[in-house]
Design goal:
single chain; about 140 residues; alpha+beta; Thrombin, subunit H; 2 domains; 5-stranded antiparallel sheet; two-stranded antiparallel sheet; 7 strands; elongated
Length: about 140
């Protein structure tokens, strides 16, 4: 492995010391922290270092990288059978329109409280937006 192909944070495999992570790189030597806790300066050309993490090379690709990534991701999503998030959100939203949140206190002598979901989420949004300071009694 040539020193030019190393990068900081790359996992590498040394024939004698095992796997480690590249910490620093100079002109001819890379400092590697090995899994056993030892830190060694190694000349990658002479030491026989190999990458320990998978990598891929795509040659002959005549597409913009963005398009390649989008097509690859779309193929993976289709193969996994995942739906678009927008369609799921709409279905869940319709299911809960006009719904109520029922709060049951830990103490059995106290009454339960029903709150319309729209009111509950409105209060949550106001509380986290920082527009007002609600006291616990108001929630």
């Amino acid at each position: 492995m040539k020193i030019d192909s190393l990068r900081i944070g790359l996992k590498v495999r040394h024939p004698q010391y095992g796997t480690g992570t590249v910490k620093t790189i100079s002109e001819a030597v890379a400092e590697i922290l090995f899994d056993d806790g030892s830190k060694r300066a190694v000349a990658p050309d002479a030491a026989g270092l190999e990458p320990a993490e998978p990598h891929a090379t795509v040659s002959g690709l005549d597409l913009p990288l963005k398009q390649f990534v989008e097509e690859t991701l779309a193929a993976a999503v289709a193969k996994l059978g995942l739906e678009k998030p927008d369609s799921v959100v709409e279905q869940l939203g319709l299911r809960w329109h006009g719904g109520k949140l029922v709060l049951h206190p830990a103490e059995a002598t106290l009454q339960t409280k029903e709150v319309p979901l729209e009111v509950f989420f409105h209060k949550i949004v106001i509380l986290f937006s920082g527009k007002t300071q609600l006291k616990p009694q108001q929630i």
